[in-house]
Design a protein that fits this description.
CATH architecture of one domain: Roll
Radius of gyration: 74 Å
Pfam families: Lectin_C
InterPro entries: C-type_lectin-like, C-type_lectin-like/link_sf, C-type_lectin/snaclec_domain, CD209-like_CTLD, CTDL_fold
Shape: rod-shaped
Keywords: Coiled coil, Lectin, Membrane, Transmembrane, Transmembrane helix
Order of helices and strands: HHEHEHEEEEE
CATH class of one domain: Alpha Beta
Number of helices: 4
Organism: Silurus meridionalis
GO molecular function, one term: carbohydrate binding
């Protein structure tokens, strides 16, 4: 209604056509300005959302960067702690290495010393073994001598050949049978100057001398001119005859009833 009244009022002027046109242009410009303002008012929220989204993205990126920095810092702290522990372990291992090297050198020195002592002990062992062998040989020789001393003995009384043989048997022995030169030499040395019966006789057959174990005589140690069977009464043999002048050849034939000691030997 206002617009119409304005139009109609303006028609009463002197220039009715110009007023109507001018009013119409003002109204058009006013409508265009209102349209632009309304359009700007409509487009303004869409333009204002872009900075907000950008700010949110930047904030998120900053937050992520801060988190990454914190994580890296914590990781670096952890790695630094591990590094320090590894350095401590390295120092400890270095100290242990030096200690082990020192102990190794000490053990090597002890090894050399022990080897030297070992060689010395081995040398002493050889010497002791040699001495032991010598002592064993002397012991065996002494034992043999003792055994011989125990095996050979002289009867306590001078008796006939047969009675002396009985005395030997009563002590678990018999008149000696001399089977080697060594045995004859031993008896001559041990019973030097003692006339004694031996287990040799030819009573069964004249001239056929037999030992008491029934073996014939093979090795002979008669003194010169013996046996001579003086007056055909000498059928038993003695050793250590007082008429003999030699060390080994000391046998002679005597009458079997002649009283002399008996030389006994245990089996």
């Amino acid at each position: 209604m206002d617009r119409r009244s304005d139009i109609y009022e303006n028609t009463e002027d002197n220039h009715p056509g110009e007023c109507v046109y001018a009013n119409w242009e003002k109204q058009r410009d006013s409508c265009i300005l209102n349209d632009q303002e309304s359009k700007q008012s409509v487009d303004k929220p869409a333009g204002s959302r872009c900075p907000t989204l950008f700010a949110v993205c930047v904030s998120l990126l900053c937050g992520l960067l801060l988190i990454c920095i914190i994580v890296m810092f914590m990781k670096l702290n952890t790695m630094a702690g591990e590094r320090d522990q590894m350095l401590i372990r390295y120092d400890n291992m270095t100290t242990e290495k030096i200690q082990l090297q020192s102990e190794r050198d000490q053990l090597q020195s002890e090894k050399v010393q022990l080897q030297s002592e070992k060689f010395q002990l081995q040398s002493e062992k050889v010497q002791l073994q040699s001495k032991r062998d010598q002592l064993e040989s002397e012991r065996d020789s002494l034992n043999n001598s003792i055994q011989q001393c125990l095996r050979y003995f002289i009867t306590s009384q001078k008796k006939s050949w047969s009675d002396s043989r009985q005395d030997c048997k009563a002590k678990g022995a018999d008149l000696v049978i001399i089977s080697s030169k060594e045995e004859q030499e031993y008896l001559s040395r041990r019973f030097r100057g003692v006339e004694a019966w031996i287990g040799l006789t030819d009573t069964e057959e004249e001239g056929k001398w037999m030992w008491v174990d029934r073996t014939p005589l093979s090795t002979k140690y008669w003194w010169d001119g013996e046996p001579n069977d003086y007056k055909q009464e000498e059928d038993c043999a003695v050793t250590g005859s007082k008429f003999a002048k030699a060390e080994v050849l000391t046998w002679a034939d005597y009458p079997c009833t002649f009283p002399v000691f008996g030389l006994c030997k245990k089996n």
